[in-house]
Amino acid sequence: MRYKIDSALNEIESTFKGVVSTLIVSDEYPPETTGGAEISMHELVRDSSAPDRHLVIKFTGNDDIFRFYTEDSIKVIVAPKLPPYEILNNSIPKWASKLNLFGVRIGDIPLSILYAYKFGLNNLRTTYYKLLLKRRKPSGGIPADAMPENYTYRAKILSEIVSRLGISRVISNNTRSIVLTKNSITRSPDQWAGVHKIAYVRDNRFFCARHNQIMVVKDRVCTNCDFSCSHEDAPFAHHDFRMILKAVREERLSSLKAFDDIIVTSKYLHKQINNLLQSKASVHIVPNFVSGAPKQKKSPCKSENERIITIVGSINEAKGQLEFIRNSVENLRSDKRKIIHIVGRGERVSKEIAEFCHINKIENQVKMRGFLDRSNLFMAIDEADVVVLPTIWPEPFGRVPLEAGTMRTPVVAFDGGAYRETIVDGHTGYLVDRGDYAALWRKIDQILEDEQLRSQIGSSAYLYVKEKYSNLRAKEAYHLVVGKSD
Prior knowledge:
Elements: H1 2-16, E1 22-26, H2 36-46, E2 54-61, E3 67-71, E4 74-80, H3 94-98, E5 100-101, E6 104-105, H4 108-119, H5 124-132, H6 152-165, E7 169-173, H7 175-187, E8 196-201, E9 216-217, E10 220-221, H8 229-233, H9 238-256, E11 261-264, H10 267-276, E12 283-285, E13 307-312, H11 321-326, H12 329-334, E14 338-343, H13 347-359, E15 366-370, H14 374-383, E16 386-389, H15 400-406, E17 411-414, H16 419-422, E18 429-432, H17 437-449, H18 451-468, H19 471-482
Parallel strand pairs: 1-2, 1-7, 2-4, 7-8, 8-11, 11-12, 13-14, 13-16, 14-15, 16-17, 17-18
Antiparallel strand pairs: 3-4, 5-6, 9-10
Helix pairs in contact: 1-6, 4-5, 5-9, 6-7, 7-9, 15-18
């Protein structure tokens, strides 16, 4: 594999040296993802003055081959993922790294012995693999951010590309890429000399090390992290798991400190990051914006008797779709005209929703729409009478209120996080206290039953989004940080 890496780096150097000046490190990138973080990044770069001067790298390849593609004149490198068990120089065969015995990967056994011998039983690395060897795993898995050897290969590749291409600016898009970049800087500081380093923070992972970054434990919103979620997620090994979570949070915090500038998408995140870093960082707000929406509303394709309530977003605990359905049974049974459309990905929670609806005989009133591309997403929002966001976590930004406003569709959401910025309560939508499903349904019903109110709120939302979240505003804020030349 060493030969293939050297060959790929030589090709990257000969192709891009002198052509690109800004490198974007991203977990994913369009068109192979529809995540809000990646779409927002792409839209900013695509609409910049020099999109062809940007190069994106993502480590998502499933083999040992580097791939290249172009998206809207932006060049993208797809690099291989971390080779399995690099600390053992790949001496473990691939079949052993994948083979499971009683819920334990065979390849993890020699690593566990190696770490225990080399570092002792109470070391972080030993604890990590001790948890891996348990047949029962912590809920959501074991975060590996604090395991530096997980970044060795990618950190080397990243430093080589920065150095060989003479990159002047690196933008690390979201948490995993920020941690990777910090590891690369730490390992090869000379190759990063003079590079303007920008971290783009879009989620709650710097405040919450939990796998779903939900910032909630037993219906209590976390304000100061005490890692009490370890008791919920790993009751059989909560001391060990707490050690892992604490190390992950510290690693993420130290990663942020390695950057010259930090971009966030909301006032909520701006406040959170400043509190976390004790106002010792240069933090800038670059709000998301919406593009790709049709210029005119289309005629809704639905029955006149239907009242469509649409929920948009990744289907998981943080977004709250399952809890909303659980608290909507009586309301749906009392009015068969109400149809809930759930749009988004999330196989595990989707199955739970389907099973619950079947048991409670409301499956005909809850439609799982799955993933929709941008065009069909806007059509689904246009078709809705109201968009509902029963979000449990403090939303870091949330594009859905902007997408709904663009289509003049009212939004009702649980109050929290950046929703207070994207939704003006009583004017462009409604906010109710988190977890108050009765109040949520009262606002939903109020909108469903009053066509004039529905139109008034939708129009106000459209004007608000157009004024506050235009692509021009976002580009101006972005250029103030990265420089107008790019």
